[in-house]
Write a structure and sequence with these properties.
By secondary structure, the chain is of the alpha+beta class. It has a single domain, classed as NADH Oxidase (3-Layer(aba) Sandwich), CATH 3.40.109. Helix content is 44%, strand content 16%. The chain is built from seven helices and four strands. A four-stranded antiparallel β-sheet has the order 1-2-4-3, sandwiched between helices. The longest helix is centred in the middle third of the chain and has 20 residues. The mean pLDDT is 97. Bound molecules: flavin mononucleotide. The site of flavin mononucleotide has 12 residues, from α4 and β3.
Length: 169
């Protein structure tokens, strides 16, 4: 798929089917994240990939305990998806967080290119402490990415126009 097409067709997907997502595909997606630019080329990212069904369910339930109406759907995504990737950072400054954003976007676009559905999950931060204990990780949790297959990519969500967000001089 052309880059432009992947950018246009990428969606946040909140319903996944049961089709198996193989490890090689996940590796390709993470590898594309590794190619992202990072401040001072610090490559501040690291990943924990959770494919295990019971673990995903445990994490979903943990998040559910802290839930409000907003996070309900996200809890369900964590259960339904084929892989949940926790994205950790060695964060020294804001640039490191920005770098990880670029890394995650690369991953989402590559996922779309491979016809894999994805969701960027910020709500995962609600259970940062619990996850750090579970995985004995002392880095900073930045976000999670859910991956899997879907029967239908949703329609594009509304976007501001170029004119609304741009000033020219
Ligand atoms: C930093 C960040 C955190 C997000 N966290 C969540 C989340 O926890 N749960 C969720 O359902 N969507 C989450 N999203 C997805 C956004 O809701 C979504 O990108 C937005 O509504 C636009 O839809 P689109 O991605 O389909 O274009 C997050 C997106 C970003 C960039």
């Amino acid at each position: 798929m052309e880059l432009n097409k992947a950018i246009k067709l990428r969606r946040s997907v909140r319903h996944y089917n049961k089709k198996f997502l193989n490890k090689n595909t996940i590796k390709k997606i993470i590898s594309s994240g590794l190619l992202a630019p990072s401040a001072k080329n610090r490559e501040p990212w690291s990943f924990i990939v959770i494919k295990n069904k019971d673990l995903k369910e445990k994490i979903s339930n943990l998040l559910n305990e802290k839930t409000d109406n907003d996070t309900n759907i996200t809890c369900n995504v964590i259960k339904e998806c084929q892989a949940l990737i926790l994205v950790y950072g060695n964060i020294e400054n804001n640039f490191d967080t920005l770098s990880i954003g670029a890394c995650i976007e690369n991953m989402l676009l590559t996922a779309r290119d491979l016809n894999v559905a994805s969701l960027w999950i910020g709500y995962i931060l609600k259970i940062e402490k619990e996850l750090s204990e579970m995985f004995k990780c002392d880095k900073c949790l930045i976000s999670a990415v859910a991956l899997g297959y879907t029967d239908k990519f949703p329609r594009q969500r509304p976007r501001k126009t170029l004119n609304e967000c741009t000033i020219w001089y």
